[in-house]
Amino acid sequence: MKENYHKIMLEEISKINYENKRPRLLLHSCCAPCSSYVLKFLSQYFHIEVLFFNPNIYPESEYIRRLEEQIRLIKEMGFYYNVVGTEHESQLFYDAVKGYEKMGEGSERCYHCYELRLDRAAEYAKANDFDYFTTTLTISPMKNAAKLNEIGLELENKYNVKFLNSDFKKNNGYKCSVDLSKEYSLYRQSYCGCIFSQLEYMDRIKNSQ
């Protein structure tokens, strides 16, 4: 039986006592479009800091463009959240996926990429006394939400900081992110981020002609 991660998230949120102050949540964000709905939703319940740790993004100009869009979106949505972890540490990605380069999108290559980024999020959350950490990645229909939650829970145990289960695409979350992207005129990338997904995208375009 498949886990309903959206339901699990709502149940966790319902347990939070807001009498004192909102809990602090570190949100790993992959890009502005994916974060749009997630920020809108989670801001009702948490004080958020955004971690833009995405060493997979290629080339560097693409990384800078996505980072700038992330910062712009937060400001234009009226939030005052810090964006941290913005150094483009691309070699970490290549080391993490070594031996898996020829595997397609959605394969073990992606799982190693998930783990790399979520591990940094959990490590940062622990070091900076956050109550929770989570990721925008589960909003994408192209991402394996079950695997992302599995990794998140493993890291929760490793770092002793709570992982907020999620499947943000549920309850029209993905549709809302598309609508918000149009509302804020966000740059929506044509490939996931890494050079391998870029090449795979170019091959699909070529083969469809």
How would you portray this structure in words?
The chain contains 8 helices and 5 strands; from the N terminus they run H-E-H-E-H-E-H-H-E-H-E-H-H. Helices cover 50% and strands 9% of the residues. The protein is an alpha/beta fold. The protein has a single domain, classed as HUPs (Rossmann fold, 3-Layer(aba) Sandwich). The termini are far apart. Strands 3-2-1-4-5 form a 5-stranded parallel beta sheet. Strand 2 (47-51), helix 3 and strand 3 (83-84) form a beta-alpha-beta unit.
What's this model, at a glance?
This protein has 209 residues and is α/β, with parallel strands linked by helices.
Distance between the termini: 40 Å
- SS summary, helix count: 8
Poorly predicted segments: none
Sheet with the most strands, sense and barrel status: 5 strands, parallel
Radius of gyration: 17 Å
Topology:
Elements: H1 5-14, E1 24-28, H2 32-42, E2 47-51, H3 60-76, E3 83-84, H4 90-96, H5 108-127, E4 132-135, H6 145-159, E5 162-163, H7 173-183, H8 195-208
Parallel strand pairs: 1-2, 1-4, 2-3, 4-5
Helix pairs in contact: 2-3, 2-7, 5-6
Keywords summarizing the entry:
alpha/beta, 9% strand, five-stranded parallel sheet, Rossmann fold
